[in-house]
Amino acid sequence: MNDLPHCETLLLKLDxxxxxxxxxxxxxxxxxSLAMVGELRAVLAAVNQDRNVRALVLRGxxxxxxxxxxxxxxxxxxxxxxxxxxxxxxxxGALLEEAQQVPQVLIAVLEGAVLGGGFGLACVSDxxxxxxxxxxxxxxxxxxxVPAQIAPFVVKxxxxxxxxxxxxxxxxxxxxxxxxxxxxxxxxxxxELEQRLQQVLEQVRQCAPGANATTKALLLASEDEPLDAxxxxxxxxxxxxxxxxxxxxxxxxxxxxxxxxxxx
Length: 264
Hints:
The protein has two domains: about 10-205, 2-enoyl-CoA Hydratase, Chain A, domain 1, CATH 3.90.226.10; about 210-264, Lyase 2-enoyl-coa Hydratase, Chain  A, domain 2, CATH 1.10.12. A six-stranded mixed β-sheet has the order 1-2-3-4-6-9, sandwiched between helices. The protein is built from eleven helices and nine strands. Helix 2 packs antiparallel against helix 3 (about 80-100) and helix 9 runs antiparallel to helix 10. The chain has about 260 residues and is of the alpha/beta class. It starts with 9 loop residues before the first strand and ends in a 9-residue tail after the last helix. The relative contact order is 0.10. A hairpin with a 2-residue loop joins strand 1 (about 10-15) and strand 2. The radius of gyration is 19 Å and the shape is globular. The protein is about 50% helix and about 15% strand.
């Protein structure tokens, strides 16, 4: 795979095709600094075309996922004026776009504080596993600011009605409520988070990495692309997949009653 960037705010561990990315600023509950945003974007770029990396697991150190934006960064930007704030904010939006589009399966493990920007990262994950005791919220309006970059991703994740309620009241809620809202897919007691993660990773490993990447892109395109054009393009993708190496291996394995190579 491409060399991973050196990181000061992230811990990186590649294990059996899974890149574990840990936000590592525990003293600030992993608040999202501009440096962390840059390092996350660099990691995503490094693995983008690498099919040997099957999944990314994103979590936080010290019992918290991410408490939102770094107030120190905001204070530093204040001295440089409005353009600095726009650049700081938009950089995080670019991260959310890139995280949502990354070809690998993005799995978020959500513990402790999942606030503001952390909430946004949860919304762009493919599979989200939350502790029942995690604390979710959009606190921006209670600070006199707006959830500018994360708002569109929150709406797409849980719908406009619920997004309005949560953003306009700064309501805090736990992992069970996050499950009810459809923000996360699993809500587990702390002692069972790792077991659930391993189950999810085992399921992901049953799927061909190229087919997963194409399927993810197709699903995301369904939000915006006209249906007729999308179905025409999807037919071509299907034909390419059937005739490609993964399709041949997968269908052959099925006939031979064995596991395909990528699932071994």
